[in-house]
Amino acid sequence: MDVASAARAVGLRFVPDRRNTQEQIPSLRAAGAAYNTIVAADLTDPENVARVLRFASRIAELHEAGAGAHRDMVVRLRNCLHDDGYALDAPGDPLAAIAGLAATATAALADAAAIRQELTRLERALPDDTGALIGRAKNLIEATAKAVLALRGEPVSDKDEVPALVAKASQALGVHVTQAAGPQLDQVKRILSRLHPLTQNVAELRNKVGDGHGMTGVPAVDAAVGRLAARSAIAWCAFMLEVAMSGRGAGR
Asked: pTM, whole model, 2 decimals?
């Protein structure tokens, strides 16, 4: 279990378990490190509390994915967090959406490294850097579009901006609004005509308030807007990757 990576991903200082490291069972050493890392955090700081909760979510995910996972322990953790008003997979939680998209990318692509890297960067920006979050959301869209084009054997140009990448990737998958088909054609067209432009909106927002360019001042943007941009990017990317896996176009 990579406790150190989980801690770094959420912005916590990793504190290893140094007791009998030569003889200790790896799983016990990981558990000790997780405990030490949480205890070392200043829980009077609301931001640290949020980081610890995200850390717990990642640790639970790692535990569930490992051999010999104790599901009863995960259920107990889930219930304890629920008592405090927090869920590991809260509806609309960007972290839950990030984990879901990572799994989808891994299933859809032979090489999902670029997308997983952007998701890690997105997660790191979530706590307290709205500008970076918006920038990472735009990067995620680009990485997904390029991955789709590569998957379909289409040329990929680093010179293409988001609108061009999105249009080419959509056409490659048969999900461009002009390619919609099926019995609910009008409804599918309306959804696609609203979904794809979200990617350009995210790119434009990044140019205004993201971290991609030097700024003369600090643009005022609410953290909720940053999370909305992240969710919008994830929604588009998840749709594209799911279609790539199915091999079917929109509405078919």
From this structure: 0.64
